[in-house]
C-alpha cells in the first residue's frame, strides 16, 4: 500500500494488461516486474563466486 | 494531522522502549549479515498490529462471510486435505497394495481413485512442487532446477531464492554495522493457488511445501521448507568432530574437525554464522565440553547453559544455542548431537545448526509468529529445507541406521504439525509435504539391485526392506489421517510430485559436449574443473550444469557468448538430435531416450530461463555428480557409487507421481499442474487464465490440455 509507485500512461497500462494475460503472466504486476528485472540484470554486477558456492553446500543433489 | 499525531505517539514509546532495550535479536540472511532488529521494537509493532487486528476484525469477518456466501455455499466441500509424500512411486505403491501391505492406500483407492500423476518437466522437486503451487508449467513459474546461473559469469546460484546483502555499513570500534537488513526474495513466479483461495476468504495452512521460502504473505499460514538455509547460510552443513587425525579429509556437505582428547575431555563447539559485524567475519561458535564415560559408553556434554548426557549412537533432542556477535545482538539456533564412537577414536556428529523456530533469526513462516506458535505448541523442530542429512550418509559419517533414525525424528515433528492443522481447520485447505519418502528412496534404492555399483563395500542385507517399511509406515499414517477426515464434505488427496527409479550410471554432459566439439578447453584438453575452470568460452558453443540440461553459449545472453541468436535454434536441434538415443556401450543400454528443445516444451513467459536442451534419460541414468557442478572429466559414463542410489531426474514419463483421492476424478490422466486448479474448482472458484492446469473433477474438452509433461513430444 505504501510501497514505491511508478506512473504508467493509461494506454500503456491497457497494453500491459492485454499482453500480460496473453503471454501467460499471472498479473500485469508480474509482467512489469519481469520486464524490469530483465533490463536490470543486464546492468547488475554478479555476486561473489565463493559466497555463492557456499550457499549451495549441502544441497543433496549435487556434490 | 491525525496521522502525524499517531506517528509521534508511536515514536515516543518506541524511543523509550529502545533506550531501555535489553539484548536485541538479530536478523540474518543466508550467508548474509546481521541487521539490528530490536526484539522490543518487534514486540511493540506486533502489539500495535494485534490491537489493529482486533479492532478491524468484525469488518474483516463481515467481508469474509460475504465472500464465502457466494462461493462456498455453492459447493459440497468444506475442507480439502492434501498429503504430499515426496517421491511416492505408483509402481511400488501398486505392488505393495496388491500384496496386501498397504491396506489404507487400497481402501482409499477403492473408495475414490488411484492414478499415476504426471510430473513436471523436468521431474524434480523444486520444479514439480512449484507446478503444484501455481498450477502452471515451469515456463510460467520459472523454476527449472535447484540451480540457475548468471549467464554473464556462468556462476551458479539457487534458482528459487535471491539474497541481496546490505552494502552500506558504519564503523563502530571493531564492528562494522550493516545499515539495513538482507533482502531475501522468492524467485518462483506466478501465484500459489492458496493465495487465490485466500482472496476468496478461504483460509489455508501450508506446511513444508517445497519452494515456499522466503514465505509470502497471503490469507493463511505457511511454514517454509526446501531451500530454507541453516544458520551458516548453506543448504545444510554437518560437523564431524574426530580424534582420528590420520583419516581426516574434506567432506562434501559437511566439515570434519580434528579434535584432541585430554584424558576423558574433548573440547568442541557448535558452529554458527559468520560474524558479518566484524571485518574478519570469523565463524561464531558456542563451546561444548565433552566428558567421556567409557565404562558406560556415554558422554556428558556441557553447553554454556545446559548439561546433558548422551548414550553412544543416540541423537540428542534439539538443543538451543545462542551466538553473540557483539553489541548485545543474539542469534538463536538449534542442533542435535550424536556420539558416533568412543574408542578407538572419539567421534561426534552435529546436525547443521538450524534456525530456531521459536526465535527465528529470519522469517521462515508467514505470518512470522506461525513458526513460533508451532514451536511453543509442539517444541523445537527442524527448520532446514533439506533436513535429512543425505551427505552425512554419502560420506559414511552417519550409517544407514542413524540416517533412518534422523529421518523419522524429523518426520514425527511434521506429523504433529499436520494433525494440529487438520484439527484446527473446519473450512479451508491443509497441505503438508512429508519428505521421508524422497530421502529414504534416494539413499536405499541400491538395496533393490544387488549389482548396483553403490553396493560395493556396503551392507546389502540389513536394510533391504527400508523402502518397503517406508511405504508401510506411510500407509499407517494414512490410516490415522483417514480417521480424522472421514466426512463427506472433506476431500482428501494423497499425492507425490514424482516417482522413483534407479541411479546407477552418471552421464557427464560436459564431457560429451567436449568430446563432440561443442565445448572447448583452454589447454586444448577435453577436461575442465568444477564450475567450468579451464573452459575456453571463446570456442565453446554449449555447456551444462545442474540436473536439467544443456545451455547454448549465446551471444548477447551469455557473458562470453559466441553463438549467433539466429543460429541458436538450429544448433539446439543439432545437439538434441545427436544426443537422442545415446548408448552406454559398456552396459549395452540406451542412456538418453530423447533430447527435447525447450521451445518444443514450453510457451510461457519464462522460457528464456530454461535450459535450451532437456535430455530425457532412461532408467538408471542421471546427470553425473561431476557434470552437475560444471566439470568435464573426459568420461561420458561413470558408475554411481554413492549411497544416493535412487533418483527421479530422468525422463518424466518414466517417473510419474501418485494421486489418491476419496472422490472420483472425471479425467483419466491427472497431472501435478492440475491440483491447484482442481482445489479452486472444489471451492467453486474459477480457474485463472494463466494456469495451465485444469480441474480433474471435470471432463476436459481435450485430454492433453492439462499435463506439464508433453504427450507425444518424444518417442517415449
Structure description:
The complex is a heterodimer of chains A (63) and B (716). The longest helix of chain A has 16 residues, at 28-43. Chain A is mainly alpha-helical. Chain A contains three helices and no strands. By secondary structure, chain B is α+β, with helices and mostly antiparallel strands. Chain B contains 17 helices and 40 strands. In chain B, a hairpin with a 2-residue loop joins strand 15 and strand 16. The radius of gyration of chain B is 26 Å and the shape is globular. Residues 1-39, 703-708 and 711-716 of chain B have low confidence and may be disordered. The chains are: A mainly alpha (63), B alpha+beta (716).
Q: Which labels suit this protein?
A:
heterodimer, A: 63 residues, mainly alpha, B: 716 residues, alpha+beta, eight-stranded mixed sheet, globular
SSE diagram, text form:
The complex is a heterodimer of chains A (63) and B (716).
Chain A: H1 10-23, H2 28-43, H3 49-56
Helix pairs in contact in A: 1-2
Chain B: H1 2-19, E1 24-28, E2 34-37, H2 39-71, E3 79-85, H3 90-98, H4 103-111, E4 113-117, H5 125-134, H6 138-141, E5 147-150, E6 155-158, E7 161-164, E8 169-172, E9 175-178, E10 183-186, H7 193-199, E11 204-207, E12 220-223, E13 238-242, E14 254-258, E15 261-262, E16 265-274, E17 283-293, E18 298-303, E19 306-311, E20 319-326, E21 329-335, E22 337-341, E23 347-350, E24 354-355, E25 365-366, H8 368-378, H9 390-394, H10 400-424, E26 428-434, H11 436-444, H12 466-484, E27 490-495, E28 501-507, H13 509-515, E29 527-528, E30 542-545, E31 549-552, H14 565-579, E32 583-584, E33 589-590, E34 592-597, H15 598-601, E35 613-617, E36 620-623, H16 625-628, E37 632-633, E38 637-639, E39 646-647, E40 657-661, H17 674-682
Parallel strand pairs in B: 1-21, 3-26, 3-27, 11-12, 11-26, 13-14, 28-36
Antiparallel strand pairs in B: 1-2, 4-40, 5-6, 7-10, 8-9, 12-25, 13-23, 15-16, 16-17, 17-18, 18-19, 20-21, 21-24, 22-23, 27-40, 28-38, 28-39, 29-37, 30-31, 32-33, 34-35
Amino acid at each position: 500500500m505504501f510501497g514505491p509507485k511508478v506512473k504508467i500512461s493509461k494506454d500503456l497500462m491497457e497494453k500491459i494488461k492485454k499482453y500480460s494475460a496473453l503471454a501467460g503472466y499471472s498479473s500485469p504486476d508480474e509482467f512489469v516486474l519481469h520486464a524490469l528485472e530483465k533490463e536490470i540484470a543486464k546492468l547488475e554486477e554478479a555476486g561473489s563466486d565463493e559466497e555463492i558456492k557456499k550457499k549451495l553446500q549441502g544441497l543433496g543433489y549435487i556434490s | 494531522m491525525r496521522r502525524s499525531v499517531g506517528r509521534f505517539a508511536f515514536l515516543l514509546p518506541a524511543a523509550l522502549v529502545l533506550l531501555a532495550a535489553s539484548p536485541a535479536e538479530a536478523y540474518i540472511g543466508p550467508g548474509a549479515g546481521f541487521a539490528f532488529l530490536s526484539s522490543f521494537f518487534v514486540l511493540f509493532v506486533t502489539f500495535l498490529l494485534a490491537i489493529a487486528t482486533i479492532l478491524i476484525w468484525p469488518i474483516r469477518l463481515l467481508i469474509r462471510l460475504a465472500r464465502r456466501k457466494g462461493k462456498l455455499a455453492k459447493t459440497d466441500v468444506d475442507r480439502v486435505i492434501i498429503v504430499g509424500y515426496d517421491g511416492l512411486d505408483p509402481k511400488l505403491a501398486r505392488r505393495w497394495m496388491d500384496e496386501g501391505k498397504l491396506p489404507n492406500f487400497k481402501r482409499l483407492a477403492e473408495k475414490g481413485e488411484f492414478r499415476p500423476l504426471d510430473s513436471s518437466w523436468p521431474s524434480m522437486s523444486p520444479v514439480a512442487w512449484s507446478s503444484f503451487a501455481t498450477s502452471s508449467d515451469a515456463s510460467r513459474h520459472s523454476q527449472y532446477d535447484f540451480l540457475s546461473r548468471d549467464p554473464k559469469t556462468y556462476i551458479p546460484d539457487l534458482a528459487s531464492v535471491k539474497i541481496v546483502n546490505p552494502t552500506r555499513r558504519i564503523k563502530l570500534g571493531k564492528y562494522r554495522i550493516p545499515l539495513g537488513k538482507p533482502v531475501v526474495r522468492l524467485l518462483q513466479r506466478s501465484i500459489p493457488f492458496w493465495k487465490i483461495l485466500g482472496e476468496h476468504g478461504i483460509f489455508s495452512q501450508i506446511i513444508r511445501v517445497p519452494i515456499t521460502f522466503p514465505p509470502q504473505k497471503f490469507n493463511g499460514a505457511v511454514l517454509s521448507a526446501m531451500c530454507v538455509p541453516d544458520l551458516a547460510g548453506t543448504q545444510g552443513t554437518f560437523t564431524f568432530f574426530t580424534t582420528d587425525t590420520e583419516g581426516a579429509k574434506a567432506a562434501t556437505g559437511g566439515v570434519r574437525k580434528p579434535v584432541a582428547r585430554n584424558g576423558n575431555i574433548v573440547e568442541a563447539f557448535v558452529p554458527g554464522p559468520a560474524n558479518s559485524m566484524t571485518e574478519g567475519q570469523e565463524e561464531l561458535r558456542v563451546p561444548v565440553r565433552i566428558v567421556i564415560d567409557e565404562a558406560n559408553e556415554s558422554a556428558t556434554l556441557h553447553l554454556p547453559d545446559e548439561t546433558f548426557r548422551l548414550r553412544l549412537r543416540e541423537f540428542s533432542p534439539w538443543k538451543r544455542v545462542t551466538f553473540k556477535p557483539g553489541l548485545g545482538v543474539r542469534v538463536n539456533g538449534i542442533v542435535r548431537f550424536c556420539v558416533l564412537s568412543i574408542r578407538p577414536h572419539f567421534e561426534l556428529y552435529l546436525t547443521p545448526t538450524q534456525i530456531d523456530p521459536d526465535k527465528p533469526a529470519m522469517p521462515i513462516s508467514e505470518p512470522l509468529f506461525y513458526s513460533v506458535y508451532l514451536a511453543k505448541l509442539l517444541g523445537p523442530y527442524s527448520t532446514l529445507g533439506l533436513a535429512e542429512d543425505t551427505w552425512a550418509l554419502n560420506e559414511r559419517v552417519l550409517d544407514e541406521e542413524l540416517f533412518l533414525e534422523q529421518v523419522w525424528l524429523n518426520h514425527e515433528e511434521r506429523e504433529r504439525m499436520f494433525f494440529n492443522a487438520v484439527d484446527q481447520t473446519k473450512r479451508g485447505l491443509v497441505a503438508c509435504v512429508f519428505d521421508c519418502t524422497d530421502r529414504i528412496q534416494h539413499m536405499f534404492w541400491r538395496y533393490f539391485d544387488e549389482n548396483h555399483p553403490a553396493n560395493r563395500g556396503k551392507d546389502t542385507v540389513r536394510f533391504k526392506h527400508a523402502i518397503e517399511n517406508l511405504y508401510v509406515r506411510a500407509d499407517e499414517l494414512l490410516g490415522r489421517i483417514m480417521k480424522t477426515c472421514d466426512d463427506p464434505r472433506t476431500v482428501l488427496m494423497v499425492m507425490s510430485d514424482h516417482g522413483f527409479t534407479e541411479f546407477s550410471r552418471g552421464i557427464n554432459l560436459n564431457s560429451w559436449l567436449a568430446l563432440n566439439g561443442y565445448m572447448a578447453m583452454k589447454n586444448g584438453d577435453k577436461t575442465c574443473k568444477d564450475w567450468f575452470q579451464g573452459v575456453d568460452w571463446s570456442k565453446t558453443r554449449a555447456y551444462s550444469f545442474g540436473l536439467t540440461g544443456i545451455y547454448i553459449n549465446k551471444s548477447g545472453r551469455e557473458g562470453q557468448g559466441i553463438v549467433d541468436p539466429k543460429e541458436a535454434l538450429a544448433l539446439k536441434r543439432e545437439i538434441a538430435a545427436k544426443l537422442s538415443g545415446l548408448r552406454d556401450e559398456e552396459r549395452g543400454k540406451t542412456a538418453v531416450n530423447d533430447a527435447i528443445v525447450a521451445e518444443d516444451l514450453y510457451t510461457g513467459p519464462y522460457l528464456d530461463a530454461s535450459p535450451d536442451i532437456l535430455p530425457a534419460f532412461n532408467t538408471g541414468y542421471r546427470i553425473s555428480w561431476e557434470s552437475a557442478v560444471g566439470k568435464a572429466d573426459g568420461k561420458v559414463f561413470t558408475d554411481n557409487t554413492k549411497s544416493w542410489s535412487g533418483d527421479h531426474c530422468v525422463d518424466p514419463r518414466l517417473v510419474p507421481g501418485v494421486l489418491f483421492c476419496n472422490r472420483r476424478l472425471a479425467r483419466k490422466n491427472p497431472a501435478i499442474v492440475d491440483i491447484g486448479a482442481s482445489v479452486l474448482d472444489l471451492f467453486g472458484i474459477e480457474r485463472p487464465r494463466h494456469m495451465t492446469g485444469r480441474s480433474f473433477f471435470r471432463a476436459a474438452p481435450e485430454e492433453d490440455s492439462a499435463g506439464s509433461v508433453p504427450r507425444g513430444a518424444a518417442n517415449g
